[in-house]
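Q: Could you fold this chain for me?
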Amino acid sequence: MSERSEGTADTAETDAPRRVVQRGLWLDEFEIGVVYEHRPGRTITEADNVLFTTLTMNTQALHLDAAFSEQLPPFHQRLVNSMFTLSTLIGLSVAQLTQGTIVANLGFSEITFPKPLFHGDTMYAETVVTDKRESKSRPGEGIVTFAHTARNQHGDIVATAIRKTLVRKESRPT
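A: Sure. Below is the predicted structure, expressed as structure tokens.
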């Protein structure tokens, strides 16, 4: 964009709104130890659980059969598929952390589900950056390690996961 001279009235440039495109963070923008809270949360419906469970060919009755699940202690109701819980936990972080800046997920580890989610629960997510470094083999990229945590509407932890990602460094025109 060209610079305007003082006193000139270039309405095309002065009337145009400033635009901000939502994106994730570049490698250099991540700070170790920062807690990123991802909002809004996501209320999980019966339809979400049944669709995900059937799309992924998971025939577990604990996710699909209300009469069966009601008979089983300790929950006496259907559980949200834990893979849906994990996917939603990661999905809640995308807009804030990796939208358009990630190259690839490199791996997941230390995945836990301390408490189940049920239909009607709302999941909230947060992420802590635990490590970052430049890639030794891929110039312009780096590895960021995230510790993701999902909580229900009561604040109970329902899932945790460690995720390593390959993220782009910001490319600036020379």
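A (continued): The longest strand covers residues 122-134.
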